[in-house]
């Protein structure tokens, strides 16, 4: 079980890094590749510094936390710069509704899986299908989760 927490933290880190993809594309579009390089350098320095501090204390989990913090810092820098230079908001308000719907659906499926023996692929597929159904229903129920453009 020692590496499972580090894997969860690292998965969250990769999710956090995806927050900066759109803003990096905006910076590329604006030909601000030097800012992207600086953001990557800041993330690298932060990662190395936090690794030096956290690995002796927390081991593998410390390395995972350092990675997550570095990815989050890089994404935040990209978001701020892209918004400042382009005035294009990085997130729409309905993204929060989609995240909330996914979180609720994940919680329901996670809770259900505690009572079900997930020992074969059929049960796993059924739980995955259940997640998709719950997520889609929640998107329809939660107001302003879907834009007019999304309905086409």
What does this structure look like?
This protein is mainly α and 152 residues long. Helices cover 84% and strands 0% of the residues. It has helices at 2-18, 21-29, 33-58, 60-86, 93-115, 121-141, 148-151. Helix 3 (33-58) runs antiparallel to helix 4. It is flat, with a radius of gyration of 19 Å.
Please give the share of residues in helix: over 70%
Q: Indicate the structural class.
A: mainly alpha
Main sheet makeup:
none
Terminal Cα separation, in Å?
46 Å
Which residues form runs of ≥5 with pLDDT under 50?
none
SSE arrangement, N to C = HHHHHHH
Radius of gyration: 19 Å
Count of DSSP strands: 0
Percent range for β-strand residues? under 5%
How many helical elements? 7
Give average pLDDT, whole number: 86
Shape: flat
Q: How are the SSEs ordered, and which strands pair?
A:
Layout: H1 2-18, H2 21-29, H3 33-58, H4 60-86, H5 93-115, H6 121-141, H7 148-151
Helix pairs in contact: 1-4, 2-4, 3-4, 5-6
Q: Which key phrases capture this entry?
A:
single chain, 152 residues, mainly alpha, 7 helices, 84% helix, 0% strand, flat
Overview in brief:
The protein has 152 residues and is mainly α.
């Amino acid at each position: 079980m020692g590496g499972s927490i580090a894997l969860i933290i690292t998965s969250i880190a990769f999710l956090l890094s995806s927050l900066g993809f759109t803003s990096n594309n905006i910076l590329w579009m604006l030909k601000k590749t030097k800012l992207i390089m600086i953001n990557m350098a800041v993330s690298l320095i932060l990662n190395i510094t936090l690794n030096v501090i956290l690995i002796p204390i927390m081991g593998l989990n410390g390395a995972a936390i350092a990675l997550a913090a570095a990815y989050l810092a890089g994404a935040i820098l990209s978001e701020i710069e892209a918004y400042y230079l382009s005035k294009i908001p990085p997130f729409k308000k309905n993204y929060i509704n989609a995240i909330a719907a996914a979180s609720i659906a994940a919680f329901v499926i996670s809770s259900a899986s505690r009572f079900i023996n997930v020992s074969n692929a059929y049960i796993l597929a059924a739980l995955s299908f259940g997640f998709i159904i719950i997520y889609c229903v929640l998107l329809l129920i939660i107001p302003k989760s879907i834009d007019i453009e999304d309905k086409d």
